[in-house]
Amino acid sequence: MAKTIDIVMPDLGDFENVEIIEVLAKSGDTVEREDGLVTVETDKASMDIPSPENGVIETLTIAVGDTVSTGDVIGSLTMEVGDTVLITPAIATPITGETTVLASAEDAPSKPAGKQTLVVPDLGDFDDVEVIDVYIAAGDKVEIEDSLVTLETDKAAMDVPAVVAGTIESVLVKVGDRVAAGSSLGIIDAVAGAVPPKAEETVVEKVVPATAAQPAPQPSATEVPKTLPAIDEAGFSKAHASPSVRKLARELGVNLAKVIGKGAKSRILHDDVKSFVKAILTGHSGIPGGSGLPEVPSIDFSKFGEIDVQPLTRIQKISGPRLQASWINLPHVTQHDLADITQLEAKRQELKGPAKERGISLTPLAFIMKACVTALVEFPKVNSSLSDDGENLIYKKYCHIGFAADTPQGLVVPVIRDVDKKDVYEIATELGELSALARDGKLKLAQLQGAGFTISSLGGIGGTAFTPIVNAPEVAILGVSRSSMQPTWNGSEFEPRLMLPLSFSYDHRVIDGAQAARFTTLLGKALGDVNALLKAIP
Amino acid sequence: MAGGESFDDTQVMTPGEIDAAVTGISPGEATHSAQVVVLGSGPGGYTAAFRAADLGLDVVLVERWPVLGGVCLNVGCIPSKALLHAAKVIDDAAAMADHGVTFGSPVIDGDKLRDWKNEVVGKLTGGLAMMAKQRKVRVVTGEAKFESPNRLRLDNGETVDFRNCIIAAGSESMMLPGLPDDPRIVDSTGALELTPIPKKMLVVGGGIIGLEMACVYSALGTDVSVVELTDTLMPGTDPDLLRPFLNIIKPRYEAIMVSTRVTGMRATVPSIEVSFEGDKAPSVGVYDRVLVAVGRRANGGTLDADKAGVMVDERGIIAVDKQMRTNVPHIYAIGDLAGGPMLAHKATHEAKVAAEVIAGEKSYFDARAIPSVAYTDPEVAWVGLTEIEAKAENIEYEKVKIPWAASGRAISLGRSEGFTKLLFDKKTNRVLGGAIVGPSAGDLISEICLAVEMGADASDISLTIHPHPTLSETVAFASEAFEGTLTDLYMPKKR
Ligand SMILES: Cc1cc2nc3c(=O)[nH]c(=O)nc-3n(C[C@H](O)[C@H](O)[C@H](O)COP(=O)(O)OP(=O)(O)OC[C@H]3O[C@@H](n4cnc5c(N)ncnc54)[C@H](O)[C@@H]3O)c2cc1C
């Protein structure tokens, strides 16, 4: 039995209106699920949009150069229903071991009844997300599509809907838990034969007016969101604001705890709420949520001479607020130090040629990264993050390090994963590959995520020291400037040594000065011991 | 954004609706159908229905009783206040005897008094029916239960389909278990009927409802006794509020028995014999009327709410969020069955929030304080923080208490036993809560309600000119006393 479905642009995260830079399939092509259909370019990376199902491309209605957004239909696909696996938003795995993923049913698929585990579906790029709301409790009856929990990724909050109807037996997660694709949410006693309803068939729509003469209009209210906008209720309840101002704040979703009252005795007035919103909308408050910072004066530069207005690049537009958020929210301190890399550099020069023959460019950065692993293992706090509520430190048992790469489009930070499990040559290889992808704007989203620590090397350009901004929620970043020969006192005389300037910025809420100094000292030592850095990873 | 407009913008008929329009028959054939169905017509229900209608929604109001108004209008706030007014006139008239104005002893025509009370109620409930018509709210009479998440079924077989439902089915008075079935043992509804006015009455339960009825019957000449299980009347109220009240009722009532349990009742031909267990109580008392006012039970459990998926707890209460939404997003709950104090003014505020949210407005139940009033004589009213709460939660506060002996108006009313108390935040000088005891305390408390909601501080109140001579001045006095600027009373310097 054949069926034609629309090919819809999947959720692209933050990106809207992305450009299609390549069309990889044409009508008549037989494609498999996950085969790339088109390539789009976002400001962070280019990515392939995969086919939603196995089948034959009926039409593709887009061309290179078109822009598309999440939810746009870009074509259609004919699929053999008998052969396909119907992919549903959340997966239910029967405890018996029988699988619920629907397969090869000729007629309408029905779900097996009985006890099943409700699991988190594939979340795309996110594999460790927080549960911010749990809607189910033991004994609850749920329908297909009912929200079970809300998960919060750094991109968006998303509800996980039920794929089977039934009664919740037990709930295995609570608010604050972190889950990944496949994590169990709870156990459901499913009722048989429940099929996901089509949109037009939802319960709400079954209501019809009693008299045909006056059909009830469709109230927008039936689509009310299930979750209220998150407001810090404790702070809100203490804000010095009258009932009418509170009402306005509720309407606009303003967290009164963050608004500074300009009325008598710091009472928050209607105008304070409005200017707070205005400040956010116009971006004048800098960070979302408003910081009440004094504003930079706006000046008409054309009064002083000719000017040329150029839009910021998209990467700048995205990274700007993030940098500012980090700068404002994190108390930064930068520890400066010099590492003696005379030996390292000598050795590197010696190994560089043979490596080149193997196609590897053995850069100083590969060694610096390797040395950072040594220091991060010794100081796990540097590879941690502060929890959102500021109550806990989250230590990362993995060692993924990002490195700032200068590209024509702007600054990007590709990530090398599991640096601790790689030797200098492997790191150097990956650095080369990722840098090339970065230059070509071909990095995948996954290659930009997951770093626990970042290195920004300006060594190839120049400078003696700088103050890198921590890539929050990371807690530290290493800045590297240009190495130079310097006279160093060895106890009896000055000796020329090749010194590498290190600038280690850190979040002072997490790391204190003494630890930072110990970190850079150890890092310097590690850079001095080139043989240890070259040790092969077993 | 006005709710009504958005609806017009998005008017889309479902396939079912198109069918219905073509054939004239709606699938499922519900007898009634509406955008919003309000279940129950008490202060919560009628307010929700009227507000929703005013916002342009199509509303059906379902009520099992033949009249609108619920408990509050028919057998609660309103009739009780009518009788309390009669009681106050009797007592005030008697009190003037000491000051040179003597009336004869009152002649009480119970039937006429009851008729007048019913007239008061009738005027108000009739007004509601009229206003429902004017607003095109369709009133459907019958006892409703849920049949599905979008349908109610009434005891007369009719059905009502809805897109949104507001549950406002209120509460019922609780009876003690195992009491004899005897017309002389009544709940508050029975007590309001005054048939006939008894000689000796026992009020079981020292809460507000019981004490208000005690007040009425005492003025009508009945010998009243009150029995309360806990160690205080009006549990939860700051003890100092009770003192002036107790000073007045103690000499008038036959007995006030706290920390006393009613262990049984026996109906005999001449009377009801009640046995007690408690230090200061007789083992048995004999009464010709017993009012059981031991609390009210929320009606959430009587509606088959599970068929709509709505969760109800073991107390019959339906949990809601700040927008009055239950666990089922298109079903709301308000009033006595939605948790919190069982008060009509709480129900009406919740009602507006629910109606507005359904109409697409971003309304929230965001009140910081809900006032409580006992319309006894003297009245006892309080709002916001109480001293009991402040102590339990370790909240720092400064208390100012102005005895009404300092109020010229109170003295000229012959009622100087009361006082006005304000609790202030020591750091910000803001009013955290307050209480008033004395005639009209229930009306006077509103100023303190406003102060709490506005975050007013002592000088906001003291710099507001209050008319002289009034009882309301005592609120200003209390603020002045906090600031140390009060001249109407000598208070030792504190700052
Ligand atoms: C004697 C007395 C004095 C009081 N005095 C005061 C006072 O002075 N001030 C104050 O604030 N509060 C007072 N109260 C409390 C006040 O009456 C309640 O808080 C208020 O009525 C609650 O309103 P509601 O809308 O929640 O429900 P209710 O007023 O209880 O109304 C519920 C309505 O729903 C209907 N209903 C229930 N189930 C069904 C069903 N299945 N189908 C159809 N209809 C149904 C009922 O018949 C009723 O009409 C008093 C109460 C009593 C008993």
Q: Measured on Cα atoms, how large is the radius of gyration of chain B? A: 25 Å
Average pLDDT over all residues of chain A? 80
The name of the CATH architecture of the largest domain in chain B is 3-Layer(bba) Sandwich
Distance between the termini of chain A: 54 Å
CATH class of the largest domain in chain B: Alpha Beta
Q: Per the principal axes of the C-alpha atoms, what is the gross shape of chain B?
A: globular
Number of domains of chain B: 3
Small molecules in complex: flavin-adenine dinucleotide
CATH architecture of the largest domain in chain A: 2-Layer Sandwich
Distance between the termini of chain B: 51 Å
Q: What is CATH's topology name of the largest domain in chain A?
A: Chloramphenicol Acetyltransferase
Overall number of strands of chain A: 30
- What would you call the structural class of chain B? alpha/beta
Multimer state: heterodimer
DSSP helix fraction of chain B: 25-40%
Spans of chain A of 5+ residues with little confidence (pLDDT < 50)? 82-111, 194-229, 285-290
Largest sheet of chain A: 7 strands, mixed
What pair of chains forms the biggest interface?
A-B, 37 and 62 residues
